[in-house]
Amino acid sequence: MSEHHESTRSPGEHAHPGAKEYLGIAVVLTVITAVEVAVYYVPAMRPMLVPVLLVLSAVKFSLVAMFYMHLKFDHRLFSWLFVVPMILMSLIVIGLLRLFGHW
């Protein structure tokens, strides 16, 4: 049965990750979330809180979009449709935080 599945795949199509890879990604996402929570509760990190949380959330967004939404295996245009708005959103958030004196 798996031979039939392999033969029906088109030449440009890539194999998607299996359960082991998805569990590994889930562990990485969990660790990043734990780091985010830890950074929030460390008083010495207060001056760097916003940039660190923005970077960590961007990494989590990228992992979710690449693997769970299968953008890593799709055309690059779809990746750009996620990356460009994320960068614009980050710049807007940073600008608003600076404008209102919270950073």
TrEMBL record:
This protein's GO CC annotations: plasma membrane
Membrane spanning residue stretches: 22-42, 49-71, 77-100
Membrane-topology annotation of the record: Multi-pass membrane protein
Chief subcellular location: membrane
Annotated localization: Cell membrane
Keywords: Cell membrane, Membrane, Transmembrane, Transmembrane helix
Domain of life where this protein originates: Bacteria
Pfam families: COX4_pro
Protein name stated in the entry: Cytochrome C oxidase subunit IV
